[in-house]
Each structure stands twice: as structure tokens, then as C-alpha cells.
Amino acid sequence: MKILLILLISSLGYTIAKDDSKLLRDLFKQYSERVYGKEYEKVKSMYDESAVTVEKGKKAYYGPEEIINAIKNYHKDLGDGSKTVNYNEKFLQLGDSFLYYYSDYKTQLTDRQLEGSYWQIWRKDKNGDWKILHDEFSIDN
Q1: Residue 19: per-residue pLDDT
Q2: Which of 42, 72, 88, 128 shows the smallest number of beta carbons within 10 Å?
Q3: How distant, in Å, are the alpha carbons of 51, 117, 138 from that of 60?
């Protein structure tokens, strides 16, 4: 009986928070390519109307327009020639309507290296499209 209960709980937990790497990997890859390609209107379309981006301990940006302006300013401040590597990545599906992404990152700039963590929550909207609801990052050095 205990074995059946453990199997039931384990399978329920798997449906609540399962590794759905393919879907989220594809979404995050598309998002990253658009951000680094400076395709701002396409990036903007990936955010939920009530999305929030947080630079941990510093500032929060509300709504797609403000988020895109922040991304543009980061690009301007960091300059060209940056290369980012994400590692320790986690891709999880939380039920039917939410996805969670986490990674640590290193960004090599011409004059220094930035390191930190980054995470996102995606939500399926009423049309069935996945939109970023929340993303948060830190710059730890």
C-alpha cells in the first residue's frame, strides 16, 4: 500500500512540476536570439501585458514598453561585442499554464566580465500563446 501511495504522489508531483525542456528551451532560445539580435519589437511581443522585469536589489520595470526600454539601455551601457554563456539551467513546466526557467550566466565584455543569475516565469495566455510574466536577474560583480 505504501508503494502505491508513493507512486501516486510521485506521478502527481511530476505533472505539477515536470522538466519540459523542449518547449521552454525553444522559447528561451527564440527570446535570446531576439534580445541579442536587437529585435526589440519581437522581444516586446513575447511579454505579457502585465509583465515585470526586476534587476535584483536595484530596479523593477513594469509592462512590455518599459522592459524593452530597459533592455535597450542595457545594450547601450554594455556596448557591442558581449558574449553571454548560460549554465546550471533548469527548465520546468508548472501545471498546464506556467513555465519556469533558471540559469546562472557569465557575460564577457571588452573590458570586464559580468556574472549573475537569471530566471523567468512564462504563462500561457487565453489564446494559448506563451508570454513572459516575470523575469529577474542579478549582476553579482
Answers
A1: 53
A2: 128
A3: 10, 16, 12
